[in-house]
Amino acid sequence: MARTKTDLDRSAKEQEILVVAQKLFVSLGYDATSMSRIAEDTGVAPNTLYWYFTDKDALLIAVLDRLVSAAFREYERRRKAPLERQLLWILGELKDAEGLIATVHSRTSVAPSLDAWHTNFHRMLELTLLTQLRAHGVAEEELGHAAKTTIFVIEGMLAHPSSAAEQRAFVRWLVSTIEPKRT
Amino acid sequence: MARTKTDLDRSAKEQEILVVAQKLFVSLGYDATSMSRIAEDTGVAPNTLYWYFTDKDALLIAVLDRLVSAAFREYERRRKAPLERQLLWILGELKDAEGLIATVHSRTSVAPSLDAWHTNFHRMLELTLLTQLRAHGVAEEELGHAAKTTIFVIEGMLAHPSSAAEQRAFVRWLVSTIEPKRT
DNA sequence: ACCTGAACACCGTTCAAGT
DNA sequence: ACCTGAACACCGTTCAAGT
To answer: Straight-line distance from CA B10 to C1' C7, in Å?
Structure first.
């Protein structure tokens, strides 16, 4: 069923919309970004957006997917770095998306599709963190708790900003309590 | 300047509104609760609310203050309990307000008054947690990091619900890594 | 001082109509 | 298939007017 020509056009237009939406969501926040504004910046009528995305939450999910997959591609290069540096990198990487993370948390109860995306994202995150911690010698029975703690601390640090120096000290302390002592 | 009579009336009406707002915010969520609905359930016209509260965020802050001070009164009785039990109690206590916590985080960037409330709340929370951890024998240089970790983990557990059994196991593990080993 | 009816400027979304 | 103008039902908030 190769309707290739049309499909390319469609996904090109989708991407065009998503680039605009991402920029606005990240800079203004989800609530403060109206569909009209996204349409205006894309150069279409407001209701045109609904031909490409079912609603505003679908738009948000698509934007989140873009952000996450971009971050994951970058992350591949840092798989071998020490744990402490990896965590600090993640913190810097997610800094811009801090507002969107808070939005996701506040909308899981009201938008089932977003809730599904959220649980799935955490599954992925936990999985990669598990293998990462295992590689760094964390004991098998502690892996689950250690991974959860790490994730929660990252989210906490994003929601409650502190200075770069404090961040480094905190992450160092966290890693030292989680990683087995070196001899 | 004792305008006592009027002041009493006023604060009585305020409380009446707050009881309604609290019930709706907790059950429906902040966004899903309209000012009109609060007014309707209180039995006044929508714009009447603005005579008592400057805007919807002021209403939210007043509700949060009610919830927090009630929780703190209850907490006084549990100051002496073991750390593990204290944390589990807090988790249960905040469970209903989970949605509001997420709302606070997502609105700090857009509502300065809420942001101020939020930082102040965390200051209080951190302070009581610090004395609590100190009393449980946590080393002085670790206090700050341990308190932060505890707070972040609590917030994380609220935002990402798990079974009661998992909660207990996780909290037990957390306390065991933070508290000094007993001999 | 306290409360309201009516209006304002917005919002996300839908629908009938055009090409 | 793609896009739009116009409308719908809402939203938080303001304002002039009443008592």
So the answer is: 28
